[in-house]
Amino acid sequence: MELKVDGFPVSATTGGRPLDPGKPLIVFVHGAGLDKTSWQLQTRYFSHHGFSVMAVDLPGHAGSEGSPHPSVESYAGWVARLVEAAGYDGVHLVGHSMGGLIALETAARHPAIASTLTMVGGAAAIPVHPALLAAAENGEHIAYELLASWSHGRRSHLGGHQTPGIWMMGATIRLWERSRPGVLATDLHACNDYTSGAEAAAAVRCRSLLISGSLDVMTPHQAAEPLRRNLGDVREVLIEGAGHAMMTEHPDPVIDALAAFLQPAG
Hints:
Structural class: alpha/beta
Radius of gyration: 17 Å
Shape: globular
Order of helices and strands: EEEHEHEHEHHHHHHEHEHH
């Protein structure tokens, strides 16, 4: 699926089925330097279970044209314009990592379009080590290797995906390798510079879900504490044994958590 936002084509997947205006829409937002394929198992499931879905490539990522945005706040405005371009008044916002910050800020700034908010591997802030920022700025491969290692639990370093033949570590590194120069660094700076997560959470008016991994070292469970305090109507799910990239490591528990949360609205 392709549509235009700010004059630039946007690449999105709809889980194998066209958008149906008669069904509620879920918008999936990926993390730093990644793309819409992060959500391929979730989009496939929900497109066949009562929802329309749209997993997007953010500007300058994979199939979407334009340039990556320098801030979470700017990305949030883009998501709001995306929803308008798709012809929907309200959507279920689901974001992973940086995408979670974007979904949070979108729900806070544009409450009319946020039916629900789900943050997967979410936190009120995601500070980035200066050495990692420098490696990403210089295009050093060690940045991809470190991020892949920190994104996955120990079991996933070796294998263990429910689909035979999929190597999660290698597949994630390939996504960053194929990204355009500067995209990962821009995204990491956007994460590092974002400090208003607690205030944004207090402004959210819709129901919210926090999905965390027990082995997540990038956004550990305690990093979401300001969200827990400030989100008004929030539910939490902790996936045992999951690292940061839980959508691929543990896709079924993520789907189950989302399905249970969205059922009343679906």
